[in-house]
Amino acid sequence: MIEIQTPVSDEYISKLKIGDQIEISGIIYTGRDAVLPKLVKLCQENPKQVKINLEGGVIFHTAVSPAGIGPTSSNKIEIEGSIGPLSEKGIKIHLGKGALSIKTINILKKYNAIFAITPPVTALLTAKIITKEVVMFPEEGIEALHRLKVAAMPAIVAIAHGKSIFGESGDKSNG
Amino acid sequence: MDKIKIIDKVAQCLVEASTKFREDQVEKYKEAIAKEKNPEARWVLENILEDSRVAEAKKMPLCDDTGIPHVFVEFGEDIAINTEIETAIMEGVRVGLEQLPGRPMAVRGNEVERIEQSTGLYMESGALLPAPLIFKSFSGKGMQVTIMMLGGGPEIRSKTFRVFHKHDSKNVFIQIGEWAREVSAELGCTPCVPAIGIGRTHYEATVLMLEAMKDGSLDKQSEFEQMITAIVNEGKVGPLGLGGNFTALGSFIKIGPQRASGVRIACMRPGCCFDPRRATVLII
């Protein structure tokens, strides 16, 4: 088990490989279908209005509802499409579930970011939350961008450095 | 029958269905963990079992998609079903969703607005209506209420369609098993427990599927259920898509009356790693 404290450094990401079991502690952010395209747009068009520190950050693809938290499928277009632009802005760990495309595997490699997955174990994951608050897009309700402080949130590295645990490999010619 | 008692028991039943693994589920996960050689797959299975321990101890939902309540009411010889009983069951579901709390996912608006989801959601967990209730008699006393919580992942990958039997039941089971194997790769929430109903109409097949979920047990698997599970596991999708031998932990099948025809109508719901999320309460 590898313990990871946020924000995560480039050096630390370089050491991780697919199949590594990790536990994430510190500040992480949440976002899914509704919020991630909005966040990407804001980063590109009006970065001063982005109220969170993306550098070395973790984005968990989840809603935050009274029922708790749990990963949604990351290969939905709105979510997978955010992985490249947010990695470019400094996000180091995208946390969700499901296999991603070869294009995304290559993009993650380019920015030295990784994709980690966790089962939909809501009770277990929700018990790891120390504090939670809405920081952006409150109009989205349970899908708003939340800042969570977590302790030892379990995950497994699924895509790193051009390799995927789901079997696909990145094409080096596409960078 | 005491209205308050029905509300209270039904609410407790809904919370239990959403927060607790039954013994057959716990045992099946322990067995899979002991047999699974793939370390990543085993890690997923261990986390799901640990989730069930935390969920039960803290009375928290097993999954944040707390699902749509499906209620199966079996009434004994001494019970006369009336509107008061039905209203109390509905109120019990509402109270249970508030206590859980369920994910607030009831959609506001008129018919078109609900489809388009254009006027937002209700804030209250209890605003979520259950699917139409099913009533059936049983030989005994009292009223037995089973609540099943059906999550969205399996729903969008379920299928009700015709199958040609060609006078060999294996053809039907193999076809349904292949449907389940195909969608297991897209599911994300494996290992799954497919539930299957085989009947004469789409309505009947779907009710039979739900009845299979109500009665099925992972420690009592028929020859046909084992066949479906084996077909799904041949796909080697494994827990969370990470490979290994446990894409499905078991299957539940209910076979109803059949039509004089060359085809059967089969309903296949692939299920997820928490299925069936169900609990039963006997109200006397």
Annotate the secondary structure layout:
The complex is a heterodimer of chains A (175) and B (284).
Chain A: E1 2-5, H1 10-15, E2 21-30, H2 36-45, E3 58-60, H3 77-88, E4 93-96, H4 102-110, E5 114-117, H5 122-126, E6 129-136, E7 145-160, E8 163-164
Chain B: H1 3-19, H2 23-35, H3 39-58, E1 68-75, H4 83-99, H5 111-116, E2 134-137, E3 143-150, H6 152-155, E4 159-164, H7 169-187, E5 195-199, H8 202-215, H9 223-234, E6 252-255, E7 263-269, E8 278-283
Parallel strand pairs in B: 1-2, 5-6
Antiparallel strand pairs in B: 1-3, 3-8, 4-7, 5-7
Helix pairs in contact in B: 1-4, 2-3, 7-9
Q: Quaternary state, please?
A: heterodimer
Rg of chain A computed from alpha carbons, rounded to a whole number of angstroms: 15 Å
Please count the beta strands of chain A (DSSP E, at least 2 residues each): 8
Percent in strands of chain A:
25-35%
Largest interface: pair, residues per side: A-B, 30 and 38 residues
Q: N-to-C terminal Cα separation of chain B, in Å? A: 8 Å
The structural class of chain B is alpha/beta
Strand residues, percent of chain B:
15-25%
Cα-based radius of gyration of chain B, to the nearest Å? 19 Å
Brief characterization of the structure:
With 175 residues, chain A is an alpha/beta fold. Chain A has helices at 10-15, 36-45, 77-88, 102-110, 122-126; strands at 2-5, 21-30, 58-60, 93-96, 114-117, 129-136, 145-160, 163-164. Chain B has one domain.
Describe this protein's structure:
Chain A has 175 residues and is of the alpha/beta class. Chain A has one domain (2-164): fumarase. Chain A is built from 5 helices and 8 strands; from the N terminus they run βαβαβαβαβαβββ. In chain A, α2 runs parallel beside α3 (77-88). The longest helix of chain A is centred in the middle third of the chain and has 12 residues, at 77-88. Chain A starts with a strand and ends in an 11-residue tail after the last strand. Chain B has one domain (3-282). In chain B, α1 (3-19) packs across α4 (83-99), α2 (23-35) packs antiparallel against α3 (39-58) and α7 packs across α9 (223-234).
